[in-house]
Design goal:
By secondary structure, the chain is an alpha+beta fold. It has a domain at 42-97. It has helices at residues 9-20, 78-86, 88-95, and strands at residues 47-49, 56-58, 64-68, 71-75. It has a two-stranded antiparallel sheet with strand order 1-2. A two-stranded antiparallel sheet has the order 3-4.
Length: 97
């Protein structure tokens, strides 16, 4: 009758770590979220109006800025800035009386 191979506690821990843990490369990586970089000194402390939604807010709270025809526009949301990039004339015409 053959004897069972005895393992030390260290060998058991090593085998558990090596073979029983989920493989980290098999999992999909989460999508990278781009950082919003803000320069605090460059944003105005005055009230500004988001051209997309028309809300008035403090300029330091803006998430995105765009320059169009030499004028800087401030946005509450990144989605508002993307919509403005798609058709700035539509939002600027709506803002004028």
């Amino acid at each position: 009758m053959p004897r069972a191979a005895l393992c030390s506690a260290r060998e058991v821990r090593h085998a558990t770590r090596r073979f029983l843990r989920p493989h980290h490369r098999a999992l999909p990586r989460p999508a990278r979220v781009p950082r919003v970089r803000r320069r605090r000194g460059a944003l105005p402390d005055a009230l500004v109006v988001c051209p997309v939604c028309g809300l008035e807010f403090n300029g330091k709270e803006s998430v995105a800025t765009r320059v169009h025809e030499g004028k800087t526009y401030y946005f509450l949301l990144e989605d508002h800035a993307r919509a403005f990039d798609a058709s700035p004339a539509a939002y600027l015409d709506r803002a004028k009386p």
